[in-house]
């Protein structure tokens, strides 16, 4: 019980610090690929944390905010999904099945805080800025992050892990084998869904040929992913260089025309 309490507190502190990603600039420490590594260290199973971080990252790879459309909260989902999966010994498949419901649940809390509390903080910051009190305006920015983004997530993760982990093992032991098989199949589908969401946003007719090229290299020529990445980097460099040369030539020709006048 004491170990669970200590782990719950450490996970809460990790959550509170990780969301500084939004305060200091996007450095992606809030992504499951990184956060799950720290969860693995806290839970005493670094290898599993790394594996589940990579698995969850594939599932959440298309989870980005676009306008008013907000994806499930990948911070709480990634941390709790990984923590529960390590604590129960069920692995990456179970992490995936937990991550999305948890992330969707906290999204409701985050939306309420963002709609009800954050505007009050923003108005206070605007007042300080209007009055020329820049330091106080900056402090309101930090205060808003703390009360809306950091502390609520930390409290949610701490309580959810401490209260949930003892019951989770009992529940999992009662799950029939055919349901666990279904969970494994669903876990295999989720990364593909993550890629599909990402492709839906970026795939255009101008770049589809490169997608087909990568697919052909992997499927028919059996080039490893690292080799495909090297090819892609070289192609990107060549295209950028050609585009740069064309731009320079266009600017030079335009300058010659201007000189004639």
UniProtKB/TrEMBL annotation:
It is a multi-pass membrane protein. This is PTS sugar transporter. Coiled coil: none annotated. One of its GO terms (biological process) is phosphoenolpyruvate-dependent sugar phosphotransferase system. Keywords: Cell membrane, Membrane, Phosphotransferase system, Sugar transport, Transmembrane, Transmembrane helix, Transport. PANTHER family: N-ACETYLGALACTOSAMINE PERMEASE II COMPONENT-RELATED, N-ACETYLGALACTOSAMINE PERMEASE IIC COMPONENT 1. It comes from the Bacteria. The lineage of its organism: Bacteria, Bacillati, Bacillota, Bacilli, Lactobacillales. It comes from Enterococcus mundtii.
């Amino acid at each position: 019980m004491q170990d669970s309490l200590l782990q719950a507190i450490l996970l809460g502190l990790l959550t509170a610090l990780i969301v500084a990603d939004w305060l200091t600039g996007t450095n992606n420490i809030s992504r499951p690929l990184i956060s799950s590594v720290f969860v693995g260290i806290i839970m005493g199973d670094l290898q599993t944390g790394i594996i589940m971080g990579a698995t969850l990252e594939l599932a959440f790879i298309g989870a980005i905010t676009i306008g008013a459309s907000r994806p499930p909260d990948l911070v709480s989902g990634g941390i709790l999904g990984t923590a529960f999966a390590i604590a129960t010994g069920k692995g990456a498949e179970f992490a995936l099945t937990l991550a999305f419901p948890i992330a969707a649940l906290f999204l409701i809390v985050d939306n309420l805080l963002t709609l009800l509390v954050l505007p009050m903080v923003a108005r206070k910051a605007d007042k300080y800025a209007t009055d020329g009190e820049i330091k106080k305006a900056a402090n309101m920015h930090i205060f808003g992050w703390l009360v809306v983004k950091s502390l609520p997530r930390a409290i949610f993760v701490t309580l959810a892990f401490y209260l949930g982990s003892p019951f989770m093992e009992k529940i999992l032991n009662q799950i029939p084998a055919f349901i666990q098989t279904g969970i494994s199949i669903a876990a295999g589908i989720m990364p593909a869904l993550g890629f599909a969401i990402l492709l839906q946003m970026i795939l255009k007719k101008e770049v589809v040929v490169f997608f087909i090229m990568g697919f052909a290299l992997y499927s028919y020529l059996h080039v490893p992913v690292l080799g495909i990445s090297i090819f892609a980097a070289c192609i990107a460099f060549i295209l950028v260089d050609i585009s740069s040369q064309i731009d320079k030539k266009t600017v030079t020709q335009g300058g010659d025309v201007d000189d004639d006048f």
